[in-house]
Amino acid sequence: MELVFEERTLERAGGHHDVAEGHRGPVEAAEDPGEPPLGPVEGHDPSHEAGALEREQAQDEAEGRVRERPEEPERPRHGSTVHAEGRPEGRGYPSGVMPRRTEPEAGAAVEVDPLARELGERFRAVGHELYLVGGAVRDLFLGRARADQELDFATDATPHETIRVLRGWADALYMVGVRFGTVGARKEGRRLEITTFREEVYPEDQRKPAVTFARDIRTDLSRRDFTINAMAVRLPEGTFRDPFGGLRDLAAKRLDTPLEPEVSFADDPLRMLRAARFASQLEVTPVPRVVEAMRRMRDRIRIVSAERIKEELDKLLLGAKPSRGLELVVETGLAEEFLPELPALKLEQDPVHKHKDVLRHTYAVVERCEPDLVLRLAALLHDIGKPRTRQITPEGVQFLHHDVVGARMARERLRALRYPNEVVEDVARLVEMHLRFHTYRAGWSDSAVRRYVRDAGHLLDRLNQLTRADCTTRNPFKARQLAAAQDELEERIARLAEQENLQALRPPLDGHQVMEQLGIPPGPLVGEALDHLMELRLERGPMSEEEARAALEAWAREKGLR
């Protein structure tokens, strides 16, 4: 990427012009989980489309969700005219939070994606502006741009005008976000989103944003989440626009908002959790005013849907430094609103019977696991049963059965956050089994190893990794002991797997063979017989069919069936 421009000093309104970050995520049309996603519109009828859009626009206006910018002479820019009571014309925001116009008219020349440049030429040809915005611009400067990356654009064109520009060029159009000003498209396998310049704000106690179309790119950028996402590249020429110092903040690894953080977080309360996500992904540090605003406004996240919270939490956990994001949501109190089990791990220490810091231990375990969502969720929740099971005994502090209690709590929390059932069950199973390994040092038979493999099932590799990550002791001797025991167990599993195909553990006879030999109909007795044969398989190892039939006969005699 070639960058040619002279360094300029940029300021940000509201003080703190030396901080970091910004992004307005995908359109909040996905906010309503009950609204089915619309498929691509390929080969669509223009007259039908126009009618549908007009009907949708009328409905939106009736709901008061989209307010088209009025056809009136252009007003002065925000902050240029202030009434006596100290408020700028138009939106009614205090003048102290409105951005001052400080960006240069022309900036850097940035090499951008050819597809983005091509689209910019189409908009320019019909008299409209188009800017590449959001994470794609940020990633250009981080060296993380990908050839298959989804691209976000901002334009002065209305959704109807955007559709006309895209028709005949895009391979498919997506209308799911059109009432919020966004038109989706697919071109050459790439997903694109083009959104009309806008402002947005969450009305008090409502789960959907009200949207107002803005007049220019600067206003649009001012309402994005953080300065590092409030940068834009004008297309097709590639002029770089950075009115709020996002590039400087990105270089300094600072996280700040374009306007006052209270304004940004009121626009979309999910941005508070997104701050923690960026702390994890980009290792940026929120400036003090951002942290303080998160503390004061944490309860506002209650109006955000569980599905959106889950999405941000997933991204936080899969980041390079999840401990940074987790620590931020705990220290600001934000975690109390959607994951109270996490701050509950900050257990008060008994003055006599002290134990390890469970919360810090949890941060460490999460970070020691590879970035696999099920695994890191299990690491996050593996000790949440400890506060409920803590007991002070003559032997010290104990957390009896915290694995079982924790598995139940994990199911409840993950379901509340709308995780899929398979994720819920996999995570709960890992939490429930995370202590099983610690009985290995007492001596396991081959039968115990087989049961461990059987019970872990497809989660075996994840369980082994969670067990290793759970060893955060600072005692070098103890750490070496645990690692050696884990190595030995895994070697035994591998050796038995070569001999017995442990991944396909099953009774040596099937249900039909049992019914035929015992002369019984389908029913609970068949299940009891199969369970007995499975126990023998685990205890003895591989059995021939002849051995299995003899064992079944002996069991039948004990049951009085012979």
Overview of the molecule:
The protein is an alpha+beta fold. Among the domains are: 3-70 and 91-260, Beta Polymerase, domain 2 (2-Layer Sandwich); 507-558. Helix content is 45%, strand content 10%. It has 23 helices and 16 strands. The chain has helices at residues 46-63, 114-125, 135-142, 159-166, 217-222, 246-252, 261-267, 270-281, 288-297, 306-317, 322-331, 335-338, 358-368, 373-381, 386-389, 402-416, 421-433, 446-456, 460-469, 476-500, 511-518, 524-540, 545-558; strands spanning 3-4, 66-67, 109-110, 130-133, 151-155, 172-174, 182-187, 190-196, 198-201, 210-213, 232-235, 239-241, 254-255, 285-286, 390-393, 396-399. A 7-stranded mixed β-sheet has the order 6-7-8-5-4-11-12. A 3-stranded mixed β-sheet has the order 2-10-9. It has a two-stranded antiparallel sheet with strand order 1-3. A hairpin with a 2-residue loop joins strand 15 and strand 16. Helix 11 packs antiparallel against helix 13 (358-368), helix 14 crosses helix 17 (421-433) and helix 18 (446-456) packs across helix 20. The longest helix has 25 residues, at 476-500. The termini are far apart. The model is unreliable at 1-106 (pLDDT under 50).
